[in-house]
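Hey all, quick one. A colleague (J.T.) asked me to put the zinc ion job into the tracker so the inputs and the C-alpha cells live in one place instead of scattered across chat threads. No bug as far as I know, just bookkeeping. Sequence used:
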Amino acid sequence: MHVTKPEVGLGKCQYRRDMTDSDLQHLRSAIALSRRSRERGNQPFGALLIGPDGQMLLEAENTVVTGPDCTGHAVTNLMRLASRQFTSDFLAGCSLYASTEPCPMCGGAIFWGGVGRVVFALSERAFYQLVGPVRDGLRVGCRDVFAHGQRAIEVHGPALEDEALAVHRGFWGQPT
Ligand SMILES: [Zn+2]
C-alpha cells in the first residue's frame, strides 16, 4: 500500500524584533485606529496596509459589534478590501500593520491574500494576559498559523506593547 507523505508547512515562521522608524510610525497609526474602533463601539483593534513604495493603501477597524458579523476583525476586514483591489503578486510586496497580533482567522486571511510581511504591536500572549481571567479565546498566534503554510511570511513584533495595551484597558471587563 502506498503511503502518501503528509504535507507539512515550512515550520519556521519566526518573529523578528527589528523595526524601522517607519514601521513604528505605521504601528502607531494602527494603534490609533484601534482607539477609534473602540470609540465607535467596537472592539479595540486596527490595521492598515502599506504598499511596496511605502504608500498608505488601506485601513480598517474592528466591526464585530456594529456589524454585526463575527468575522469583522480589523485584519480580516482589511484583507477583504485588499483582495478586492489588489492581486496577490502585488500584496506580496506589501506590509500589513496590526495593533494586536493577528488571530488564526486573520492570519488565514493574510495567508490567502498573499501579503508578504506582517508587523504587529501587542502580542497574542500579552493580550490574553490582560483579558485571560475573564474571557475565553482562540489562543494561537499568527506565527503558528504561518508555520503550517507553504509560503514564507515575514513577521515582526511585538513592539510598542504598552501603547497598544493602553487602548484595551478597561474594555474587556478585566480588573484595572
Ligand atoms: Zn482576527
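Adding what we noticed when we looked at it: The first strand starts at residue 15 and ends at 16. Helices lie at 21-39, 74-85, 88-91, 104-113, 124-131, 142-146, 161-168.
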